[in-house]
Amino acid sequence: MTKTDNIIKLLLIEDSVEEAEQIISILRNGGIAVRPARAANEAELEAALEQQTPDIIIANLDCADLPLAQVSVAASRGGRDVAVMAIARGLNEDRIVAAFVDGARGIALRDRPNHVQMIVRREFEALTMRRNVRRIEASLRESERRCEALLDSSRDPIAYVHEGMHVRANKAYLEIFGFDDFEDVEGMSILDMIAADDADDFKALLKRLSKGEKPPQRLNLKAQRSDGSTFDATMEFAEASYEGEPCQQITFRRQMVDADLAEELDALRSRDLVTELFNRQHTIAQIEKAAAAAAGGTIDQALLLLEPDNFKQVLDGVGLGNADVLLGDMAGLVRRHLDESDVAGRLGEHTFGVLVTRRSVDDTRQLVEKLRKAFDERIFDIGKQSLSLTVSIGGTLIGEKNANAQTLIGQAQGALRTAQAEGGNRANIFDPAAQDKAAAEKNKHWIALIDDALANDGFVLRLQPIVSLHGAEGEFYEVLLRMKGAKGEILPGHFLPVAEQSGKLPAIDRWVISNAIRSIAERERAGHKTTFFIKLTPQSLEDQTLLAWIAQQLKNARQRGDSLVFEMPESKVVTSLKPARAFVKGLEQIHCGFALEQFGSGLNSFQLLKHVPAHYLKIDRNYMAELPKHKENQEKIKEICDQAHHAGKLTVAEFVEDAASMSILFSCGVNFVQGNFLQEPEKVMAHG
Question: What is the DSSP annotation of 382-419?
Answer without folding.
Answer: ETTEEE---EEEEEEEE-GGG--HHHHHHHHHHHHHHH
